[in-house]
Amino acid sequence: MLKGMLLSYIITFVYAMLFNAPKHTIFYAGAVGMSGWIIYKMLPAYGAELTLASFAAGTFISLTSQILSIKMKVPSTNFSIAGIIPLVPGSTAYKSMLAFINTDYVGGITLGVMTMMYAGAIAAGLILGVSIFSLWKGIVARHVRKGAKAN
Amino acid sequence: MDVRDATDMESNNYVMETCLLAGEIMIKNGAETYRVEETMNRMAYAAGMKSVHSFVTPTSIIFSFKDHGEVDRTRMVRLGERTINLNKVTMVNEVSRHFVADKISLTEAHDKLVEISSQKFQYPDWLLNVAAGLGSGSFAVLIGGTFLDFIPSAIAGAIVFASSNYLYRLLPITFFAEFAASFLGGMFTLIASWVFPAHLQLGVMIIGAMIPLFPGVALTNSVRDLMAGDLMAGVARGVEAGLSALAVAVAAAIVLSL
After folding, report:
1. Alpha-carbon gap, residue A86 to A63, rounded angstroms
2. Residue B129 — φ and ψ, nearest 5°?
3. Between chains, do A21 and B86 touch, taking CB under 8 Å as contact?
């Protein structure tokens, strides 16, 4: 687990670098990716499906990125794009490819659909995060005239 | 040029130029569509223009407003190659925020945008290649590889990243560059697994090596665009992400069937 945390931090950190995020944000991006990965790993241990875990992690990443984006006054994509990299369903995609090559088309399609489910769950989580946040922002803006503007 | 001594027409043109420059930098460097449209609109309104409309897709910007003399002005720009440089997006965001809050003048904003658009990456190329390698190696270990898998997959990841950039400069077709790059990286891992069959797992190494080409930005932005109601841009980016994934998948399939 500790190894995984370190690795996911490194992955998110270097991808924030590759996307040339501003220098003061990449350390935070690493933390966002790491905490997303922790959720992604913890939930299946409590009996959740991998799809649900991806969804929850995506939501979490999206929410934390938006909060950080307001705190630091930078676009939220600085954190969220690199943050989802550790969740990429690479191994399912790979197994699907392998099944197609071994002419196991049914298995390949099954695994391919699973890959799309996982990727779709991450995307849906991102959407949910954005929606929750715009809802919250709307409520805040109604009460306070100068609401969150930076994201 | 200073707006205050310019004639009215010139200042209108100047507003148009500045807004378009801001939009162009943002969309070319991986900003979401709604952010680009909002930035351009806010800047134009702050400059005193009326009925401002913008339409942004990943390949073009259409921008129109009614100027001080009630004349409709519309410009359309076609956008060439896109990269990902979130630093530029952040900086343009900042410039536009300052301009809208009246902290800087239009001239200053324009000068800053010109400066931003000519800026290079913050990190040297070798560092980016090393970073890509580190990311690939870490991913391979994260999905169940051992630390022995780390080294070949890190090298393969660096190969994929460096060669995709190099090949794109050679022949600017994204699909070709990504396909060839992931093929090269895949071949490297395949050869490594032939040489040390007892210690290395081909699967995790290939997955790790392909990770630099994962279309994360296209996917994330596609989702956000669709949610914001920019259907055209969202679908376009979704297709972009799908094409990247296809290029990588085909290359991986060829490598695996060897």
Report:
1. 17
2. -65, -45
3. yes
Which DSSP state fits A144?
Answer: S
Contacts of A94 in chain B (CB under 8 A): 203, 206-207, 252
Residues of A with CB below 8 A from B253's CB?
A: 97, 100-101
Residues A14, B132: C-beta atoms closer than 8 Å: yes
**Exposure letters B35-59 (e unless 16+ CB within 10 A, then b):** bbbebbbbbbebbebeebebebbbe
- Only one residue has tokens 């090298």, namely B155
Residues in B closer than 8 angstroms to A70, CB to CB, are none
Kindly list the residues from chain A whose CB atom is less than 8 angstroms away from the CB atom of residue B97: 73, 149-150
pLDDT at A112 over 60: yes
- Contact between residue B202 and residue A95 where contact means Cβ atoms under 8 Å apart: no
What are the structural domain ranges in chain A? 2-143
Domain ranges of chain B: 8-117, 125-257
Chain B touched by A26 (CB under 8 Å): no
Instruction: State the complex-level ipTM.
Output: 0.85
Q: Cβ of B94 and A73 within 8 Å? A: yes
For A26-69, write each residue's pLDDT tens digit: 999 999 999 999 999 999 989 888 999 999 999 999 999 999 99
| End-to-end Cα distance, chain A | 32
| CB-based burial label for B82 (10 Å; 0-12, 13-18, 19+) | middle
CB of A8 within 8 Å of any CB in chain B?
A: yes
- In total, the C-beta contacts within 8 angstroms joining chain A to chain B are 143
CB B97 within 8 A of CB B5: no
